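Now for today's protein:

——
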Amino acid sequence: MRFIVLALALTLVYGACTVSRDDIGGIVKLSALAIAYGSVPVIVGLSGLLAQRRLPPERRQHRYELSDAGISMSSAVGQSTTAWAAYERVEESSRGFYLSPQKRIWYFMPKRALHRPGELDRLRTLFVESLGTRARVSTARGSSIGAA
């Protein structure tokens, strides 16, 4: 994403320096290029959303079970268990937890899936106990646990 923004900014700066007031074709090309760069994140996001919606219902729902041994994920079509040692880190956002088994790969576990009182705090504690400083989660008061 940062690369796209940087490329767009450089294109606009370069284009503004080379396009004169009378060069309508250059302005049109520059505008088309700016629109193309700006639409890439939208297209990527929409394609992911549409791919998810095309899946049959039994493939959309996943169940996560967390224990001292690791994380078990299951759906109607398969299951796996991964030990905590396999995870590089866990990061908490306002909407859920991002679990990273390796760089640039993330599993998302939404907080809305936690229904019982105290589950959120137990989950944070389990992450910290299992991953130590690789768990970047919040406390009940809003301060961060784990490495910053």
